[in-house]
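Sample pair:
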Amino acid sequence: IFDDIICLTNICHSVFSEYTSCRRVSLPIISDSISLARDRKMILHQASTNKSFSNKNTFETLLAFDMSSRIKKDLSFIVSGELNKKELNLIKDNDKIKYIGVLDDHADVISLYKKAGCIVSPSTKEGLGLSYIEAKEQGCKIISTDFSPMNEYSDYNCKSKIVKDNTLQPLAFVSAKEILGNIIKYYEDYCV
């Protein structure tokens, strides 16, 4: 049926490995270096573009951002996407967290990747999202869930509570404390 099956992640490869035409490859664009020109102390989180869909662990990420801003006062945080009222209330009084809403122009997203030192993307359920590839291509470090396929391309992995459901990809929940710990590790590795 297929001439070639090319898998970018281990989980994809495990599904299709029985086919002789299946190959596991890594992306050549991904770099481990971090650009000196970027603001290493700027950390980005992209919330969902639908505020009723919470697959990005946004509330826990915002809690971690709020706690981080009190510990490491020179960090700044940018949040894009749709936030619900609970999330907006959490960050409304924190001048270190800048909410910029939904970015309609993809060039604006790439521009943020070029400026930020790190993205925090502890998605509850996701394949290898385009955001991982684009952020890595621009030299960002990534904090993610310790679950495949996200952990295959992230620099800092948050221990996750895995909840199986009736799909191939289980849910991965991450605590604000775990995200905070990885933000502090990132800070110590790249901002001091």
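Residues 176-190 form the longest helix (15 residues).
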